[in-house]
Design goal:
The chain has about 375 residues and is an alpha/beta fold. It is built from twelve helices and twelve strands. The chain is elongated and about 65 Å long. It starts with a helix and ends in a 16-residue tail after the last helix.
Length: about 375
């Protein structure tokens, strides 16, 4: 083989090599970078949303996650560095909802569209920029559903009212103070009990409310103290999330409940964590109000990708999983689901199934957690 032929073969090889690299590079460049700023990735609920966002991003976007570790200052720094990451849009699970205005200034300065998720900033933040959206669920609704589960139980188990006074003596385990989920869920408890007292003859009396910061271990320790103080006067526990509900159950088990003798106290949480659903299946936790991580994660990713591609999320090309679709004022409201022993089978899925739901074709304009049990 002559030198000229060898040179020609090398040249062809280089053309093929760099041609493939250029093609692959172009393919990757077509997928915009979307950054997910999480308030705390130790939070199991947020872990699930992150996994859904990443699964839903396949063939749509390159997702980078940043963990603020429940530190607003750190999250602000992360937001300031989005341009250096090549971000075309951002999904923000904000640490402190009252800092939404400051966060928005940082994002607007970089011209990076934002989808706030799960933790709702103040209304002025979303209305303050036409490139700001919110995806989440209405916390007042989850609080109302929590109490409805309790009331339905007492209506069918009259002996649960141990002192026969027509009132449910209940304990409240709250999330972090100032968080809108904490405020509205706790507010709803009294409202629904008051309504039920006049309509169904089953009212409520709050024994005590304590803050456990969404944390199972803190809730367990707080519940131990509450049991020492109130003992058998406790007839129900309402927790602002499942982690705290599970912590309360841990303490109640140590006090002899849910074991031999069938000593039972109805405990209700919010989120629909798999461990909570297993507890319901075992007849321990009475119920939970499932906050649809799949719909929230998928919708946030779809909107963020549309914004990154300079498309309008309200275009028909963007199919959202939420039945209600895009609400007024750039809000997506994802509905909650009550889960009890009667219907848990429709929701008790392993993590793989949840993530498979998240990657379903976006043309399926339905709630991905609709269940045959409903």
């Amino acid at each position: 083989m002559c030198v000229q032929q060898i040179r020609l073969m090398i040249l062809l090889a280089l053309i093929l090599l760099f041609g493939c690299q250029t093609s692959e590079t172009t393919k990757n460049e077509k997928k915009p970078t979307v950054v997910f700023l999480a308030y705390d990735l130790k939070d199991k609920f947020i872990q699930m949303i992150e996994k859904v966002v990443k699964k839903a991003s396949v063939d749509r976007a390159n997702v980078i996650s940043e963990d603020a570790e429940n530190n607003q200052d750190l999250q602000q720094e992360q937001a300031s560095g989005l341009s250096s990451l090549g971000a075309k849009s951002v999904i923000v699970n904000i640490v402190d909802r009252t800092e939404g205005t400051t966060m928005l200034k940082v994002l607007k300065a970089q011209n990076i569209p934002v989808v706030f998720i799960n933790r709702e900033p103040e209304e002025s933040v979303i209305s303050g920029w036409n490139m700001a959206y919110y995806v989440g669920a209405k916390p007042l609704e989850s609080g109302r559903m929590s109490v409805e589960i309790i009331i339905d139980y007492f209506a069918s188990h009259r002996d649960a009212d141990r002192n026969s006074d027509g009132l449910v003596q209940y304990v409240v385990l709250m999330g972090e103070l100032g968080n809108q989920d904490t405020v509205y869920r706790t507010q709803a408890y009294k409202e629904v009990f008051d309504e039920s007292d006049s309509r169904r003859g089953i009212g409520g009396q709050e024994l005590i409310r304590v803050t456990a910061d969404w944390d199972r271990n803190i809730a367990r320790e707080k519940m131990k103290d509450i049991i020492d103080i109130f003992g058998t006067r406790i007839e129900a526990v309402l927790a602002n999330n499942d982690e705290m509900a599970l912590g309360a159950i841990d303490a109640l088990k140590e006090a002899g409940y849910f074991g031999p003798g069938n000593r039972f106290i109805p405990v209700v949480g919010v989120d629909g964590l798999q461990e909570a659903l297993v507890s319901i299946a075992q007849g321990v936790m009475l119920g939970t109000v499932l906050s649809d991580t799949v719909s929230q994660g998928v919708d946030a990713l779809y909107i963020a990708t549309a914004l990154a591609n300079k498309s309008k999320p309200i275009d028909t090309s963007v199919k959202l999983t939420s039945v209600s679709g895009l609400g007024s004022g750039r809000y997506i409201w994802v509905p909650y689901h009550k889960v009890t022993k009667e219907n848990y089978r429709g929701y008790l899925k392993n993590e793989k199934q949840f993530l498979e739901d998240a990657s379903k074709n976006e043309d399926q304009n339905t709630n991905s957690l609709d269940s045959e049990a409903s």
